[in-house]
Amino acid sequence: MDLSQCSSFGLAVVVMFGGFACRCSARDPLSTIRCFSDLQQLARQRSTQSAPPRATLPAALADLPYEQYERISYKPDLAIWREERRTYFETFHRGFVQRDKVRVFAVTPSGTAEVPFQKANFTYGEQLDPALIDDDAGHAGIKLISTLDGMPGGQELLTFLGASYFRGRSAETRYGTSARALAVDVALNHDEEFPFFHAFWVVQPEPPESKVQVLALLESPSVVGAYRFMFTPDRWESRLDVRSTLHFRSPVEKVALAPLTSMWMWGDGLAGPPKDSRPACHDADGLLIRQASKGGQSEWIWRAFARQSYPSVSRIDVAQLRGFGLLQRNRAFFHFDDHNARYDLRPSVWVTPKEPWRDGVIELLELPGAHEGVDNIGAYWVPREQPKPGTPLELDYTVGFFAGDHGQQRYVGRATDFNLKRGESNDSVEIAIRFAGTAVAQMSEASSIHVDVETIRATVVKKAVERTDAGDWIATVTLRLNEDAPAEISVRLLDAGRALTEQFRYLCPPRTPEFVYPAVYTREE
Prior knowledge:
This is Glucans biosynthesis protein G. The chain is mainly beta.
């Protein structure tokens, strides 16, 4: 639907959804939104006002255990535009930890109309009596469902649920790593502020398009934002184009842009608990950064995840950021050996600014999570110059959801896996890193490949490199840890000073972390 020419409506509009009518008055500013410029104007006006209070969750919903909440679902036959469009949507019910009450609107050629909350649109399972639920309990978020060529039925490929979180996937993957619209004061010595989506506007797609536009109003005590999400679902790589205008009500200590969250319990470099036979347990196994070099070429940094016995924040300076993401690089089933969670099918999530983001840092937050049901990894861009009230911050970037490695990195040698062995004393460590890719596969055994190693709080004792029959190269580095603190390690392969591989980075714990794991791990989705 072409909304390039958008304008406010008259007194009211009436739109039919699934057999029920909803009416919106133009006196409600949210009901007049037709396009992104309307929303930008509304956000600018609201930035001079205090943030709206967050709704209280009724006791019957707040006390719901997870098992009962997950049984509440929207009736598929009542999904909005299900019979009319290739992409349609449903809403989420409030309850459990989903406390925010969001308003949901549908934008069609007939106008903008609010989607009312109705208990009759949901199934509640056998253990929950709908009579205990308030009639105005409200929506918690939305999910987008697409019908794709060659795929059976409708595929749920994008959700907005909780604070400013959203999760996407391609049709050949499962949900894993999540994203957020914005993070405020994350990883500091005081409480983080969580902006939340106050309202959504889903714009009806033009047939036969499956691409869909979602507008969203972000609110928090410090900031108000207008967001436009253009979602292109796909079997192999779904894409979310994001534009936003942020107005800060008050100064913030740290704003984190395009934040990603994921889970890593164990895998390369760390064995799991004795009672769990799975070799690895994670939604992503590393942070990949693409930056521009002085000559304009791309430089790639791969930071493999680690676990310390305490929260850890790593900062990577970047002059020109071309992209970053949390990747599920290892997709072999035997790497996880998990028939329920199927971590081998979790997507990689990649952020690409429309124009390089300049002069800032990528922060990687690693928490010692207790179990795999909780995200313990975060990555985000922090500009050195923080935004100020009175000066809007404009963002324009793309979030891609796909399987495995980044497509534009296939020529570069990639650290596909690594092993870590400790000596009899904790201060001796051997790391063996396997590099694979076209650049290294073309090198013969007679090549003069140099193992370039940089360390902090560690001394290189020995290093070597060996070519495998498959054309991969394994770099082995033996280190002596100099302090009772994590050692920073960087390894790459060079040929006559030319980089053949990405830069492998790792934060090596001074000893094997000790954790008390719960008896049950796997989360079924």
